[in-house]
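Problem statement: downstream parser choked on a complex file, so we are re-checking the raw output for the nicotinamide-adenine-dinucleotide run. The parser issue turned out to be on our end (a line-ending mismatch), but while we're here, posting the original submission so the record is complete.
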Amino acid sequence: MNAQVIDGRACARSLKKDLAADVARLREDGLGIGLATVSVGEEYSPGAYELRLRRLAEELSVPYLPRTLPGAASETEVIATVTELNEDPCVSGILVLRPLPSHIDEPTVFRAIDPRKDVEAVHPENAGLLALGVPRFVPSTAASVYHLLDTWLDSVGEDRADFYHRSLIVVVGRSNNVGKPAISLGYERQATVESVDEWADRTTGIGRHTRWADVLIVAAGKPGLIKAEHVSENAIVIDVGINPREGPDGRVHMVGDVDHESVASRVRALTPVPGGVGPVTDVWLLRNTVTAARLLAGHPPADRAAGAPRSPRLLPEAS
Ligand code: NAD
C-alpha cells in the first residue's frame, strides 16, 4: 500500500488566505499588529525559521521586528530585550527562538514574556491554561499537527469526534514546546494518548508503543527514527521533525524523524518533510499574533478558535 501524502503546503495556503482577511479586519478596526522575534547566537535552525517568518510577515503586511543578540549575550541582556518588547505598543506577539545558548535558562526567559504577547504559550500561565483545556494561545506546532489531522479526516469523510474517541494517539518526544502540547490537544479531543520518550527507546524500544498507534506524532529531532517496523498498517503518521542534513553537493536540506520511504509503503497517510507540518506552523504563529493583537486591545477575537484548531471538541479559550 502507498500512503496518502498529507499536503501541508496546500493547507497553509488556505489558512493564509483566511489570515490575510483577519489582518485586513484588524486594520479596519484600527488595531495594530506586530511580531517580534528574539534570537541569540547563530544556530542554523532558528536562523532558517526566522527567515521564513520574516518572509511570511512581509507577505501579509505584518510588521516584523527581529532582535538578534550575540551568542555571548547574558541572560540579563536577553531578559532586558524581552522587557523592551513587552512595553513596545507596536509589538503584539513575541517569539523567543530556541535553542538558546546553554548559559541562558530558557524557563527564566520565558517567564519574562508578557503572557498576553506570548504567542507560543511558553510562559507558565499560558502553558497552564493549555494543560487545563482553556488555552489563551495554542502553540503553533501542536496546533498545526491537529489542523492537518482534522483537515485530512474531513477530506476522507471520517467523522472527527468519532475518529478521535476510538483512536490511540502516540506522541514520540515530550518537549515543552511540541510533545507536551500535542499530548494536551489529544486529551482535549477525548482520544487515548500515550507519550514515548527516549528512555523507552533506550530500554524496551519505542516499537512496542508506536506499533499500536492509530495516529503517530513524531517530534524527537532524530532523523529516520521511525521505520516501517515501528508502525501499523492503517496508521496516520505526522512527522514534526526538521533536521538539517548536508547532501553530497554540500547543500543543506531538511529531513524528518520518519524514514519516509519505508513507512510510506505501510501506513494509511503521512506528512512529508519538507512540506508537511512546517508551512502550517509558520502561518499559525501569525494567526496567534492576530489573536494577541485583539486580546491586547480588549477585543475578544471574532472567531474564538482563532488561536486553536477548529474542532467541535475544542474547549473555549481564556481571554
Ligand atoms: P527537543 O529536543 O526539545 O525535544 C525532543 C524530544 O524527543 C525530547 O523529549 C527527547 O527526550 C525526545 N527524544 C529524543 N530522542 C528520542 C528517541 N530516540 N526516542 C524517543 N524520544 C526521543 O525538540 P523539539 O523542539 O520538541 O523538536 C523536535 C523536532 O521537531 C526537531 O526536529 C525540531 O526541529 C522539529 N520541530 C519542527 C517544527 C515544525 O514546525 N515542523 C516545530 C518545532 C520543532
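For whoever reads this later: The chain has two domains: 29-138+279-301, 140-277.
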